[in-house]
Amino acid sequence: MSYTIAQEGGAGMQITMAFIWLAVFVVMVVIEIATLGLTTIWFAGGALVALIISLFNPPVAVQIAVFIVVSVVLLIFTRPIAAKHFNKKMVATNVDSVPGEIGIVSVNIDNIAATGTVMIKGMEWTARTESDDVKIEKGAKVKVLRVEGVKVIVEPVTE
After folding, report:
1. CATH of 94-156, one of 3.40.30.10, 3.30.390.10, 2.40.50.140, 3.40.225.10
2. Which secondary-structure segment (H or E) carries 156?
3. pTM, rounded to two decimals
C-alpha cells in the first residue's frame, strides 16, 4: 500500500477517503434502518456527497466541510417535511392516549391520605387531583388531565 501511495502520489489517500466516506454512509444507513427515527439519514446524505467529492481528490478538510454543510442543509430543509409526512399516521397509544379520557373512581381519591384509583379503558391507575383540597368519591366520573409517572392527575366531571 505504501508503494501505491509513493508511486501515484496521493491516489492512495483518495481511495482511502472514499472508503471512509462509504463506511460512514453505510453505518448511517444501517442506524437509520434500525431506528426508523429520521435521525441519521441526513448524515448519510452528507456522507454520500462527501464520497462523491472525495473521488475528485480535494483536501480532507474540504470533504469534511462538504459533509457538514450538506448534512446541516438536509437536516434544516428536509426534516420538517419528512417528519410531517412520516408521523401523520402516528396514533397515540398507551400512556399518550390517556389524557382527556374519562374514568370511574374505584377507590376514593384523597391526595393527603395518598389514596385513589381510577379505571380508564379497563386499566386501573393510581389517581390524584391537582389540589389537595379536592376529594373525589368512589363511583364518580373523572377526566384525566395528564399523566405524571405512574399516576393520572384528574378532575371531577360535572354533568
Report:
1. 2.40.50.140
2. strand 151-156
3. 0.49
